[in-house]
Amino acid sequence: LHALIRLRGAVAEGELVARAASAGVGIYPASPHYLRPPDGVAMVMGFTGLDELHIAEGLRRLGKVVRELAR
């Protein structure tokens, strides 16, 4: 299973992927799957095989990364 995450604002796609990976969260750019570039940043996040605790922890870590980049 996957979730599409869309962010608006001045967050750089590549930097978001790299920082998320450093925090132990795997996300992938969704932009290659669009005919036209999306407004803002669109990311794909897979969660197959993860239990609720690991999903919640991943979202907590991703939220921290996004907040740091949005400053």
Main sheet properties: 3 strands, antiparallel
- Percentage of residues in DSSP E strands: 15-25%
Tell me how many strands there are.
3
**What Rg do the Cα atoms give?**
12 Å
Q: Which structural class best describes the helix and strand composition? A: alpha+beta
- The number of helical elements comes to 2
Which descriptor suits the 3D outline?
globular
As a percent range, the share of helical residues equals: 40-55%
Summarize the helix and strand pattern as letters: EHEEH
Terminus-to-terminus distance: 31 Å
- Uncertain stretches: none
Strand order of the largest sheet: 1-3-2
Indicate the mean pLDDT.
91
Written account of the structure:
The protein is an alpha+beta fold. Helix content is 41%, strand content 21%. A three-stranded antiparallel beta sheet has the order 1-3-2, with helices on one face. Helix 1 crosses helix 2 (52-70). The chain starts with a strand and ends with a helix. 11% of the residues are buried. The mean pLDDT is 91.
